[in-house]
Amino acid sequence: MLGLRRAAAALLPLRAGFPAAAMSTLLVSQPRYAWLRELGLQEENPGVYNGRWGGRGQVVTTYCPANNEPIASVRQASLEDYEETVKKAKEAWKVWADVSLEMGKIFVEGVGEVQEYVDVCDYAVGLSRMIGGPILPSERPGHALIEQWNPVGLVGIITAFNFPVAVYGWNSAIAMICGNACLWKGAPTTSLISVAVTKIIAKVLEDNKVPGAICSLVCGGADIGTAMARDERMDLLSFTGSTKVGKQVALMVQERFGRSLLELGGNNAIIVFEDADLNLVIPSALFAAVGTAGQRCTTARRLFLHESIHDEVVTKLAKAYAQVRIGDPWDSDTLYGPLHTKEAVKMFLDAVEQAKQQGGSVVYGGKVINRPGNYVEPTIVTGLPHNSPIVHTETFAPILYVLKFKEEEEVFAWNNEVKQGLSSSIFTKDLGRIFRWLGPKGSDCGIVNVNIPTSGAEIGVFIYKLFPTGGEKHTGGGRESGSDSWKLYMRRST
Length: 494
What we know:
Residues 100-492 form the Aldehyde dehydrogenase domain. Residues 1-22 form the signal peptide. Belongs to the aldehyde dehydrogenase family. By secondary structure, the chain is an alpha/beta fold. The protein has helices at residues 2-9, 34-38, 79-96, 107-127, 166-177, 191-207, 222-230, 243-255, 278-290, 310-322, 342-357, 408-416, 431-438, 457-464, and strands at 44-46, 48-49, 53-54, 59-63, 70-75, 135-137, 144-146, 148-151, 154-158, 181-185, 215-218, 236-240, 260-263, 268-272, 300-306, 361-364, 379-382, 399-405, 420-421, 423-427, 447-450, 472-473, 490-493. It has 14 helices and 23 strands. Strands 3-2-11-10-9-12-13 form a 7-stranded mixed β-sheet, with helices on both faces. The chain has a 7-stranded mixed β-sheet with strand order 16-17-18-15-14-20-21, sandwiched between helices. The chain is globular, with a radius of gyration of 23 Å.
């Protein structure tokens, strides 16, 4: 695991160069992106790893969201590749189980995500010495009761485009120290990242003469994901993605009485009371709403403002939005990058139009930015009722719906009325209100914040690894990384 930690650090992009391949139009062959070559990526890359690299499926090209130019391509897994890889992963697990325990985002966010993987490897190393159950005396003389924990076997990990490194790290590091083998399918649009990460892991495993299939990879689309969900050899399936697809995955896994870990969507809210410190509110709301261009599961999508401060906060927030530096993700001064795909841009425009049709007013943004790539303006919408259909719809884009409220009781209810229950936050100085917010009649979310944003808090959670992170209701109920979430990756007997 320490080897994986060092290897994960190697994912941090380097600026040194290789000469560009003659006449190539792919970014992987251009000097500016020479670090992709250092990660072992070529113009066409095999997308299957099970101890050996391969792939017999279709070739999928990955595009840069900042300019929509092709980066490189990955040959995806066929169903035959999937079958072969599952068999090898199950065989590799027999070896690993006996070992004793010991996306288009801006540059700074990409570095931070890789650091998450490094951190969770650190955490997992220590956690490996703390796994176990109690031993209690029995009422029968000469007997004892033991809670025995064993690995589940093969853990399937399906990750989303927005955190293509960290989410795999949260799952695989814990799964491995529990004695499991892993089979990873990343998002088809981030296959190059999956290949690059697996190349680093494969070297660590091979250098230590451990079967590479312990950390297998199958790049592919819905056909591979469906096969994983229905496969009884998949002892646990961890899925991170949309609520819609997560529901389909859960039903397929449950049909075979399998075990799943779901990390799905979030329609997250910030509530600002009249006594809040606005110098804290404005940057927090800005960060929560536009960080990663609104493409985090913990992004703030609803901002409830007490009616007495509504107009003041909207004015100050719009001024703050105007100062956000939008640009090339590789520029260290850039705070806001592109959306992931052209389809995401269309969803953004559709949501803005629906908001207008339902009575909302766009006070900032709302348009596509006239430049190459998938850039849209961070957007503020006011004037909608709290229960408008578009307000209750999670749109993976930088759209913030600003809503008025009068009383604590009503706004707590409005926070909870959406189907998802991932992250939430209030800004107030009232200690009584804070504890009501944390209590049984307060927020029903899995992450409950006070005077901090809805997003970003999860970074601190994962660095210190004391508490698990996840959500309730249509967010799926799954928990990853902290506290006793390791139990999800194991089976127990008494």
